[in-house]
Write a structure and sequence with these properties.
The protein is an alpha+beta fold. It has a single domain, classed as Trna Endonuclease, Chain: A, domain 1. The chain has a 7-stranded mixed β-sheet with strand order 1-2-3-4-5-6-7, sandwiched between helices.
């Protein structure tokens, strides 16, 4: 699935989950993530969406996410450190989703497939949750609900 289709899918899921959603398609590549959302004062934040067609063939190869720039990472890390929820959602081969928070975004493009799966908050394969961390976080629970 291309990033545009992933965006449409996530926007529709967020709206179905009763969240207000805003797309941010910046022409000047200011680093602002693709979407912002708000369900209530606690469950809200920013999401950067990316897709890759397949995992690297070699197990020890780093997963490269095209067009995910340092400016985007810096924006999300700084905004997250200021107390806002910032997420990176990666879709792989149309059947896998990995959700990361701002604390792990700096690792993107530096991890193998196995390391990506170990470091993400939510890992979904074929619409089935394989790994969910921080279930006590309301925003992570909300994402889990809309992604599965």
């Amino acid at each position: 699935m291309a990033e545009k289709e992933l965006s449409k899918k996530i926007v529709n899921s967020l709206i179905a989950g009763k969240a207000h959603v805003q797309r941010h398609e910046e022409e000047f590549n200011s680093g602002i993530p693709d979407l912002s959302f708000s369900l209530d004062p606690i469950v809200n934040g920013w999401i950067e969406l990316k897709t890759i067609h397949t995992w690297p063939k070699k197990e020890d190869s780093k997963v490269r996410v095209p067009h995910f720039h340092d400016r985007q990472k810096e924006w999300m890390i700084q905004r997250g450190a200021a107390g806002q929820n910032c997420f990176f959602l990666l879709e792989v081969a149309e059947n896998e989703l990995l959700l990361f928070d701002h604390k792990k975004i700096h690792l993107i493009n530096h991890l193998t497939k196995d390391e990506m799966i170990k470091n993400c908050l939510i890992y979904i394969k074929d619409s089935e949750a394989i790994e969910v961390k921080y279930r006590n976080n309301r925003t992570v629970r909300f994402f889990f609900r809309i992604l599965t």
